[in-house]
């Protein structure tokens, strides 16, 4: 069943639908390449926060309507409607609870997030794709961090996400020189999961979503958490965290099903519990 979460007319909307155990989230502001307004960003925060405690869900799909994924946060739409400059401290007070919160939720939610990208993924749109667990792009998609070309410094997690995915040298090319990267190069760099021709793009996304939505959801979520923890921990600390996660995952029904399937030489039938 499809639900339009935010009815914003020409200002864009975020729509969601529950497709079995998959939550599909679509950014829809096609006249502006799905660039995000304040309202759209807040809707994403609300939708992802709700998804975090919805135990009927086992995977999330994030996509853009039309021919583009997302051209970032629309600075014209997100500034004061009367044209006045934001008051001092406005960004420091607002962004952690808006754009930054969206990136954090995608990165930390204990559900696998698949992002499908065609056309432009720029600025915050690029960082949404970087924060997802798996991003599938068309070969001619364009990933771009245009911050310095617009005269301001990078935001929405780009300086944390990019170096960890592609290394510092390539991150500098994107963040300091504004280099645009196509889908093929993004996959070669390890920035995204894979790049596909337009003819096979959607099938690849759906096959990946089906695999994740039928997997051991708790174990996948704990593995995702451990990967994040390991980015800022020692080997010893990471192995200790793995032990706690292992203790939890071994108490799930899916763990018992996995063992039974192994003994019986059959494919497991995981329920996400």
Report on this model:
The longest helix is centred in the C-terminal third of the chain and has 16 residues, at 198-213. The protein has helices spanning 38-52, 75-78, 90-94, 99-108, 124-131, 158-166, 168-175, 183-189, 198-213, 217-230, 235-249, 253-263; strands spanning 2-4, 13-19, 22-28, 59-64, 113-117, 120-122, 134-138, 142-144, 181-182, 194-196. It has a seven-stranded mixed beta sheet, sandwiched between helices. Strands 6-8-9 form a three-stranded mixed beta sheet. Helix content is 45%, strand content 16%. 39% of the residues are buried. The protein starts with a strand and ends in a 10-residue tail after the last helix. Mean pLDDT is 90; it is low at 1-9. The protein has two domains: 2-214, 2-enoyl-CoA Hydratase, Chain A, domain 1; 217-264, Lyase 2-enoyl-coa Hydratase, Chain  A, domain 2 (Orthogonal Bundle). It is globular, with a radius of gyration of 19 Å. With 273 residues, the protein is of the alpha/beta class. Helix 1 (38-52) links the parallel strand 3 (22-28) and strand 4 (59-64). Belongs to the enoyl-CoA hydratase/isomerase family. One of its GO terms (molecular function) is catalytic activity. It comes from Mycobacterium asiaticum. InterPro entries: ClpP/crotonase-like_dom_sf, Enoyl-CoA_hydra/iso, Enoyl-CoA_hydra_C. This is Enoyl-CoA hydratase.
């Amino acid at each position: 069943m499809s639900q339009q979460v935010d009815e914003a007319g020409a200002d864009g909307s975020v729509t969601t639908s529950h497709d079995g155990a998959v939550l599909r989230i679509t950014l829809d502001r096609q006249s502006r390449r799905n660039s995000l307004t304040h309202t759209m960003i807040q809707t994403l925060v609300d939708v992802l926060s709700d998804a975090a405690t919805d135990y009927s869900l086992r995977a999330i799909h994030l996509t853009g309507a039309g021919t583009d994924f997302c051209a970032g946060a629309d600075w014209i739409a997100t500034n004061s409607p009367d044209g006045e400059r934001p008051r001092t401290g406005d960004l420091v007070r607002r962004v952690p609870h808006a754009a930054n919160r969206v990136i954090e939720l995608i990165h930390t939610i204990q559900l696998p997030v698949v992002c499908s990208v065609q056309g432009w993924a720029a600025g915050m749109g690029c960082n949404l794709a970087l924060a997802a667990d798996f991003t599938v792009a068309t070969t001619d998609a364009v990933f771009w961090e245009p911050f310095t070309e617009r005269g301001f410094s990078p935001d929405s997690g780009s300086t944390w996400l990019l170096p960890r995915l592609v290394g510092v040298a390539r991150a500098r090319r994107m963040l300091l020189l504004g280099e645009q990267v196509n889908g093929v190069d993004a996959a070669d760099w390890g920035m995204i999961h894979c790049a596909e021709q337009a003819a096979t793009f959607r099938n690849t996304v759906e096959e990946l979503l089906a695999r994740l939505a039928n997997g051991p959801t708790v174990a996948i979520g704990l593995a995702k958490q451990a990967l994040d923890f390991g980015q800022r921990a020692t080997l010893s600390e990471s192995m200790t965290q793995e032990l706690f996660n292992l203790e939890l995952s071994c108490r799930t029904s899916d763990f018992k099903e996995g063992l039974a399937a192994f003994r019986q030489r059959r494919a497991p039938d995981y329920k996400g519990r």
